[in-house]
Design goal:
Number of domains of chain C: 1
Strand content of chain C: under 5%
Largest sheet of chain B: 2 strands, antiparallel
Largest interface: B-C, 57 and 64 residues
Distance between the termini of chain B: 24 Å
CATH architecture of the largest domain in chain B: Orthogonal Bundle
CATH topology of chain C: ABC transporter involved in vitamin B12 uptake, BtuC
Chains: A alpha/beta (about 525), B mainly alpha (about 375), C mainly alpha (about 325)
Number of helices of chain B: 14
Shape of chain C: globular
CATH architecture of chain C: Orthogonal Bundle
Order of helices and strands of chain C: HHHHHHHHHHHHH
Number of helices of chain C: 13
Largest sheet of chain C: none
Radius of gyration of chain B: 23 Å
CATH class of chain C: Mainly Alpha
Distance between the termini of chain C: 70 Å
Number of strands of chain B: 2
Strand content of chain B: under 5%
Oligomer: heterotrimer
Helix content of chain B: over 70%
CATH topology of the largest domain in chain B: ABC transporter involved in vitamin B12 uptake, BtuC
Chain lengths: ~525, ~375, ~325
């Protein structure tokens, strides 16, 4: 087979954001008429790398060659001029405009503006690649997959020869995914260079010609799909085991604290985001939840906290004092508290949900407790003491307890939040990505806090993304994949590869649908 | 969005959100803005009239503090403006853009006037005044509650709704004036109960406005305490800062919105009550005279801090009274005060940018490809 | 009877025209995401600028040329009101100030300027007394010479000064631009979702500035029409009344579509004066009639929020300033 011409070549690309290294000396090559998968875990720098080709970011170091000529891509417009188009994970569409209008938005074409002509052209492109789209339909009436189609047509309309798709299947059903793959193959046969960013192994094997793997911002290697298997790819993706030395004690006579039975939840669009979820969280144990971002972790925690409507199922809380069972399902947060359930929740969105950025530490301390007592007025005495305590014990770096939390660094914000949630002496703690964006020392502080709680007999539910941490911190690990549980493992016996496979592989059932 | 695109478009000027500014610096910026504004005003005065602006400013001072009566008038007007500013503040703190204070206050005026006209000579004073007080609070609270309920229930745009409610209120007042006009055909209500003084707020120590001023002073403290130290004040702040957090802590957001607007409206009612029973003893569509709009600007400029609002209301009253004085002295039109107010507001509004954002200049350097 | 109806329609149109200018201007502004509550002030400025322009021309002592009599006040009004809109744009777009507060301050300022100069122009620069610019007014009122021969139809629909027709032309052109041109498409995108528009390569700042200033200019013509044509060249303080706010109400009533506001303006204008035409109506019920436009607008506002039809909603980013966050 003759070597196909090179569409894009990256040489030693590096990019840092502040102190975070997103990409370190990455080199890659894409040929015309091929599909390249860029594979990696969350945070491995896939999207950042591709954004540099699309003109969203500019590399700190390294060279980009397009069709063997060195180029400097400084804006999306530059990328378009080089016939490069990227379909982002978050669609950039105007809801009240029609498909055709969105496609021509911002274009400076010569000649009279004629929506009919645009519609014709869109139909032509659609026919060529088998897109099923009504150019006159408004975006707000469209399904996610239709919106994605528009983004693809938008890029083609601008004459793109090199297409980059950021996790295109994350939002699609299996049928839609298959249709998209057919279209992408057709484009490849048409001579276009296609890059898809993904972390789904089966899709990589099914679709692409070659796979490039990134891990923690670094380039691991590229292999031909023909030579790849799921386990080879998983190993490349997660890497060798790293020892972190997070202490882990043996669970001390664990008892069941929270039993979730067969719950189902829908999101606002009516798509099922959680199905058949059943598990038990035990007191004195850390239950880890692993999964690719958006596999239902947030919905699960919010369902337990009373913030997400549960279609059916049961969430049983076993009260250690009374020994009675309470069903928390469809109860409001207030009602849950009135039942005497001491449930702490460290949400993923710290400053948008768990804390109020413009309030000081003291006022944030009482967010969940200010209602106590019948007084019309707030009592700031206890929160003040608590704030001082947390600042001292967790070594929060802050000018004072009256500093708005918005002005603290990420790690300190998290200490304030976790500190508050622990201070209410809970029986259940749920923490979503509590160490995300934190430096090493702050991360360990958080892990230690969770361990202490476990030893105190609290049922800890820990949603994490770093598999090394999950394996070393947790007692059991539950893996979520597309809103379903694909396995509950003993953390002491499992391996990262096993978890990685459960996170990424699509069940037979879904493919055969 | 990102550094590179920025560099591409704006090579020399870089604007970024400021994290924090020390107290004295932000005050310095405000004071500078006001001084600059006064300078521009002076320039305009010279341009129009040819008078020495210092003379003009000194006659403004004269107009505000020239005599005991003028001082009382200034204090009274400051108090009324402050009262309405206090009223709109809880709603604003909750990020509910209520620009209907004008109408809400006017409805309070209407309720007070109605009580004075219908019960003024029939009820004993100790009953009449409380009835007037409660009626005006209730009327205004309902007036403010209507848009609040629609916003809470259906997400109706509250800015536009409350704006429209102002003019419905104005027309409602015109409607009642046709029934109450005195003398007939004058299209005005005249002084209500001018002989019996039924429903007039009593003079304290011989000062007509003292009671109003005391009420507003108390309200200022109460509002400060309410926002800072009450659970309700805390709740509305959380709703304003982040609805997601409010949800997280299990707040009933709709309830908070409606409750806050009821309080906001009721306070407008108090202002209306004082305007009619304590100040004008009559009602017209101009009784509130745009104070409802000025109050919005005051509340916003004071960053919702009732104590700072005292200063802001005073500044604006000083401007309007002072400008009124120049207008008389120089035989100009009273509207000059609106112009000066407008200019000063522009400067204060504009200077906020330099507190919120950091502007840095830099020289364009070509990025070297490596 | 038919005569009365014809006069009524004619009067309704006359009352509606300033509202139409105001609402077309405000629609264009709001389509860019700017809620300009300074429109009432801008309309005052439009009126007073034309008065100032005409005053200096009429009192300059030269022989009055009817074309200049129209052109000078026209461009004075345009200039004055666009300058006001520029102040608003600078504060809200460049300095990202709160739109409501800026708009209200602009209205205070504009009404102040209007009433100040309206009241003291002649005492400042001339012999005193109130201003009357009858000559200019006549030029603005000039209509087709053949109207008299066209009977009732002519009298009802063809007897207006040119500004009346211009207002309808502007509304139609605005409607066409918004719906059938690239510029209109981009403008709508800016008001709906500035971040997306920005990503698509549209210069959001430029669109916001232009839409606000052009919208302000158009609204200012409403003030010009009121002073020069309706009143006939005189200024009375506060004479313009609440028409500016009524224009903003009309924007909602027309569901942000300039085409709808043509008929809407006539309807609002009609409600303004209908009490004069219904026999036996007491003065008190007149006031209720005057309340109707606002009540109807509120009703529309509540209904569209209940129905949630996306095409009828205000531009999604209305009232918010846009700041491209850096990473």
């Amino acid at each position: 087979m003759a070597e196909k011409p090179v569409a894009i070549e990256l040489k030693n690309i590096s990019k840092t954001f502040g102190s975070v290294v997103a990409n370190h000396r990455v080199s890659l090559m894409v040929h015309e008429g091929e599909i390249l998968s860029v594979l990696g875990e969350n945070g491995s720098g896939k999207t950042t790398l591709m954004n540099m080709i699309a003109g969203i970011y500019y590399p700190d170091e390294g060279q980009i060659f397009v069709r063997e000529k060195e180029v400097s891509i400084r804006s999306p417009k530059d990328a378009f001029d080089l016939k490069i188009g990227m379909i982002h994970q978050h669609f950039k569409l105007v809801d009240v405009l029609s498909a055709a209008e969105n496609i021509v938005l911002g274009l400076k074409e010569k000649g009279r503006y004629d929506l009919e002509k645009v519609t014709e052209e869109v139909r032509r492109i659609s026919a060529k690649y088998n897109f099923d789209i009504d150019p006159k339909k408004k975006v707000y009436e469209m399904s996610v997959s239709e919106k994605q189609t528009i983004e693809i047509i938008k890029v083609l309309y601008r004459g793109a020869e090199i297409l980059i798709l950021d996790e295109p299947t994350a939002v699609l059903t299996p049928q839609e995914t298959r249709k998209l793959f057919a279209i992408l193959r057709k484009m490849r046969d048409d001579g276009k260079a296609i890059v898809i960013i993904t972390h789904k192994l089966n899709e990589v094997l099914e679709l692409s010609d070659r796979v490039a793997v990134l891990r923690k911002g670094e380039y691991v290697g590229t292999i031909d799909t023909a030579e790849a298997t799921e386990s080879i790819l998983a190993e490349m993706m997660v890497g060798k085991k790293v020892t972190l030395n997070i202490g882990r004690s043996e669970p001390n006579s664990p008892q069941d604290r929270l039993t979730v039975c067969d719950i189902h939840c829908m999101n606002r669009e009516g798509i099922e985001v959680l199905s058949d979820i059943s598990f038990t969280a035990r007191a004195g144990e850390i239950l880890g939840i692993a999964g690719i971002a958006g596999s239902g972790q947030r919905e699960l925690l919010e369902a337990i906290a009373g913030l997400q409507y549960v279609d059916h199922g049961q969430i049983l809380y076993h009260d250690p004092k009374t020994g009675k069972d309470e069903d928390l399902c469809r109860k409001k947060p207030m009602q849950i508290r009135e039942l005497g359930v001491r449930l702490s929740f460290v949400p993923e969105d710290r400053l948008g949900m768990g804390l109020v950025g413009n309030m000081d530490i003291i006022d944030n301390m009482m967010l969940r407790s200010y209602r106590k007592g019948h007084s019309f007025f707030l009592k700031r005495k206890d929160p003040r003491t608590l704030a001082q305590q947390i600042i001292e014990q967790l070594q929060v770096v802050t000018p004072s307890a009256t500093t708005p939390v918005r002005r603290l660094s990420g790690g300190n914000v998290q200490k304030v939040l976790v500190g508050r949630e622990i201070a209410s002496s809970p029986t259940v703690i749920m923490a979503a990505y509590p160490a995300r964006g934190l430096d090493v020392n702050s991360s360990y502080t958080i892990y230690n806090l969770l361990n202490q709680q476990k030893e105190r007999g609290v049922a800890v539910i820990f949603v994490g993304e770093d598999l090394d941490v999950l394996v070393e911190l947790c007692d059991r690990i539950m893996v979520l994949n597309g809103g379903r549980i694909t396995g509950i493992l003993d953390a002491r016996k499992t391996t990262k590869e096993e978890i990685g496979l459960l996170m990424t592989k699509t069940e037979e059932r879904a493919v055969n649908e | 969005m990102n550094k590179e695109m920025k560099q591409h478009h704006e090579q020399h000027l870089r604007i970024s959100k400021r994290d924090h500014m020390v107290f004295w610096k932000s005050w310095l910026i405000h004071v500078t803005a006001i001084l600059l504004a006064l300078l521009v005003c002076a320039f305009i005065i010279v341009l129009i009239t040819g008078y020495n602006p210092l003379e003009v400013y000194s006659s403004m001072w004269e107009g505000t503090f020239g005599s005991a009566r003028k001082v009382w008038l200034t204090m009274q007007e400051t108090a009324m403006l402050l009262c309405i500013s206090l009223a709109v503040t809880p709603a604003y703190k909750m990020r509910f853009w209520n620009i209907g204070a004008e109408g809400q206050t006017l409805i309070g005026c209407l309720a007070t006037a109605a009580c004075m006209i219908y019960f003024g000579n029939r009820m004993p004073v100790y009953l009449l005044i409380p009835v007037m007080f409660l009626a005006s609070m209730a009327a205004s609270a309902i007036w403010a509650m209507i848009p609040a309920v629609c916003r809470a229930k259906w997400g109706t745009n509250e800015t536009l709704f409350t704006l429209m409610m102002n003019y419905v209120a104005t027309q409602l007042v015109s409607y009642f004036i046709t029934f109450w006009e005195n003398p007939v055909g004058s299209n005005s209500v005249g002084i209500i109960n001018s002989i019996s003084k039924g429903g007039w707020l009593p003079e304290l120590f011989g000062q007509k406005y003292l009671l109003n001023i005391i009420i507003v002073a108390i309200l200022t403290v109460l509002m400060f305490v309410y926002l800072r130290y009450s659970k309700q004040g805390y709740e509305l702040t959380v709703v304003g800062e982040s609805e997601n957090t409010a949800r997280y802590i299990g707040l009933n957001i709709k309830k908070v919105i409606i409750r806050t607007l009821v309080i906001s409206g009721a306070l407008c009612g108090v202002a209306g009550f004082m305007l009619v029973a304590g100040t004008d003893h009559t009602i017209s569509t101009d009784t509130v005279g745009g104070m409802g709009f000025t109050a919005i600007m005051i509340s916003w400029l004071a960053k919702f801090n009732p104590i700072v609002m005292v200063l802001a209301s005073f500044l604006l009253t000083f401007l309007s009274r002072g400008a009124g004085e120049i207008a008389t002295a120089l035989r100009l039109n009273q509207s000059v005060s609106d112009i000066l107010t407008g200019i000063i507001l522009f400067f204060i509004i504009g200077c906020e940018f330099f507190i919120q954002y950091k502007v840095s200049f830099r020289f364009h350097k070509k990025e070297v490809k490596g | 009877m038919i005569d009365i109806i014809a006069t009524f329609i004619k009067q309704a149109i006359i009352q509606g025209i300033p509202l139409l200018y105001g609402s077309t201007g405000e629609i264009i502004t709001e389509k860019s995401g700017n809620l300009n509550l300074g429109i009432p002030g801008i309309m005052y400025i439009g009126g007073i600028s034309s008065v100032i322009g005409a005053y200096f021309y009429e009192s300059s002592g030269v022989d009055l040329n009817p074309v200049l009599c129209v052109v000078i006040p026209f461009f004075s009004a345009l200039f004055g009101s666009m300058l006001m809109a520029l102040i608003y744009s600078f504060l809200t777009i460049t300095l990202r100030a709160n739109q409501n507060v800026t708009g209200l301050a602009l209205t205070t300022f504009g009404v102040g300027i209007g009433n100040f100069f309206g009241g003291s122009l002649s005492s400042l620069f001339g012999e005193g007394g109130s201003i009357s610019l009858i000559r200019t007014g006549e030029c603005f009122k000039a209509t087709f010479p053949f109207v008299e021969n066209l009977g009732l139809f002519g009298k009802t629909f063809l007897s207006f000064g040119f500004l009346a027709y211009l207002s309808i032309v502007i509304a139609l052109v605005a409607s066409w631009i918004l719906n059938h041109t690239r510029v209109g498409l981009n403008l709508r995108a800016v008001g709906e979702n500035p971040a997306t528009a920005d990503a698509a390569g549209i210069n959001v700042t430029r669109y916001k500035y232009l839409a606000t200033c052009i919208g302000g200019g158009i609204a200012g013509l409403g003030g010009l029409y009121f002073i020069m044509d309706y009143i006939g060249g005189a200024w009375t303080n506060g004479g313009f009344g609440d028409r500016g706010w009524l224009a903003i109400a009309l924007v909602i009533f027309a569901l942000w579509k300039p085409k709808h506001s043509i008929l809407g303006s006539i309807l609002f204008g009609g409600l303004f004066i209908v009490y004069l035409y219904i026999p036996g109506l007491s003065r008190s019920s007149q006031e209720i009639f005057k309340m109707l436009p606002y009540l109807v607008t509120i009703l529309v506002l509540v209904l569209i929020s209940i129905r949630r039809r996306r095409e009828d909603q205000p531009p999604a980013s209305l009232g918010l300033s846009y700041f491209r966050e850096e990473r």
